[in-house]
């Protein structure tokens, strides 16, 4: 097989509208072979529509879908070399587990003996080796989920599309499946495109995440990039929990908020530009009130198991969320400290391209 | 205590239904079976059954009835399945369904007479045939017109159960099938049809069984050229007054219906649970 760097899937200027409602607005996307990608966004943001466009279940109103360098807009779904795991699994109720998994192979006129071995292999892969003879109605939701994955993987697709496949499972099972899916993807080296509205799921599994809102991709990047440097208010809020405070950029590497100036790690804005500051709750450390960079009063706290979630207010009535391993006393003032690099400054209405360019510019300046 | 009370109250709900069944289903069937063991002179005999199963006329009639019922059911199915399927794709399926059901509100006799008008020598059908140059043809009193009108009358009873099955079908099954490489035809034959089979079976039951005993249409539209068991029963009860023989044919028909129900009821090995999910 020739090694090439061309993306396995590329979407260029994909638009989709039903009547007057625009579902997708000019989507551009590139997926490299062998990586785990996630489309993340609230329900109705168009992430499933992107998946369906790639799978061939819906046609884009405009734009092109490339698969392995070829435009596949006009290739019907049954001739595309990719498979889908559906949100409701869509296992055929009139066929048993093995017949479901073998369905696609049978259509492709694969020899009977080979079907049998490949079905068995696929079932083993999802740890259901002895379940071939079971009826779909006899197995649990988690097992149905695995059958759906086996049914797609047995086709040896180049790309596997997963449409919120874990949303119907309970919390414990979902966590187990996250590990298993990630493990499967790395072992098989297949490109996964995973759709979810669960940010934890996205952060845990993906090589790269695309955060979507209202038919647009707001930001794409590794989980760490997106978590540490969200491009705007929406992304910061959607990925993890954050304290988002209005501020002013005094000069490069100096920002002012809640009436004080702080050293920070961001640059490239206009002097005195209005910005928003993100401080993650886990980056805030509690110290004595006279030693803190900020002084806040504890309002309430919840015990979350591995940490305390503390809600506090400063003198300007800004709410501060703090995650701490130690409890605080309600009603008492505490000091908060943080490092300059914990402060993340966001410009208002900055596009992803401008954001990336700015980041590159001032990071180069550092060297 | 409370449970017992509830039980008696629940049993009370069954009284009207049980009464109905006993009075209008069980009692008539018993009477029919009883009647079938008496000859025209009122003497107890097995002769009616002997006559039935040895007479080539009756046996031919039976074959004829089954054959025509089969043709009517087949024609109805071939029209109804695509109709039900397309109905499900339309924007207002309930409206179309209503239009399909509406003819059942009209009395069967009226519809039969309407078709006599349409198929007569000077009827609309022949006017159209003349217009396109095929010329007037004998349409009424042919096997074709009999099957045509019978199928027309039965279509709503076939469309309804199939439509229900089709509309319950989860559309993601169709996508899953395409996703796994199935052509539209393969998707239909391997996924859609097997999953809507319960509706088809229900439709066949609702059409085939009444078609076995059609009698009015055989006379009005078929011109008595098609003699079915239904016609024979009518003759025995109303013309020859041989109620015993008429009852015997009735019993044979009931047995035939039970067999059809049993055949199309099918094994419930695969529960349909996932279908509505």
UniProtKB/TrEMBL annotation, chain A:
Record Gene3D superfamilies: 2.40.50.100, P-loop containing nucleotide triphosphate hydrolases
Highest rank taxon of the organism: Bacteria
A molecular function (GO) term: ATP binding
Domain ABC transporter: 9-239
Catalytic activity: ATP + H2O + polyamine-[polyamine-binding protein]Side 1 = ADP + phosphate + polyamineSide 2 + [polyamine-binding protein]Side 1
Pfam (any one): ABC_tran
Alphabetized UniProt keyword annotations: ATP-binding, Cell membrane, Membrane, Nucleotide-binding, Translocase, Transport
Key word Iron present: no
PROSITE patterns: ABC_TRANSPORTER_1 (PS00211), ABC_TRANSPORTER_2 (PS50893)
Assigned EC number: 7.6.2.11
UniProt cross-references to NCBIfam families, sorted A to Z: potA
Subunit structure: The complex is composed of two ATP-binding proteins (PotA), two transmembrane proteins (PotB and PotC) and a solute-binding protein (PotD).
Family to which this protein belongs: Belongs to the ABC transporter superfamily. Spermidine/putrescine importer (TC 3.A.1.11.1) family.
Its biological purpose: Part of the ABC transporter complex PotABCD involved in spermidine/putrescine import. Responsible for energy coupling to the transport system.
Protein name listed in UniProt: Spermidine/putrescine import ATP-binding protein PotA
Highest classification ranks of the organism: Bacteria, Bacillati, Bacillota, Bacilli, Lactobacillales
Protein encoded by which gene: potA
Automatic annotation (TrEMBL), chain B:
Domain of life (superkingdom): Bacteria
Domain ABC transmembrane type-1: 62-264
Subcellular location: Cell membrane
Transmembrane segments: 12-34, 66-88, 95-119, 139-163, 241-263
Residue stretches in coiled coil: none
Listed InterPro entries: MetI-like, MetI-like_sf
Keywords: Cell membrane, Membrane, Transmembrane, Transmembrane helix, Transport
Keyword DNA-binding among record annotations: no
Keyword Repeat among UniProt keywords: no
Bilayer topology term: Multi-pass membrane protein
Family: Belongs to the binding-protein-dependent transport system permease family. CysTW subfamily.
Protein name per the record: ABC transporter permease
Native source organism of the sequence: Lactiplantibacillus dongliensis
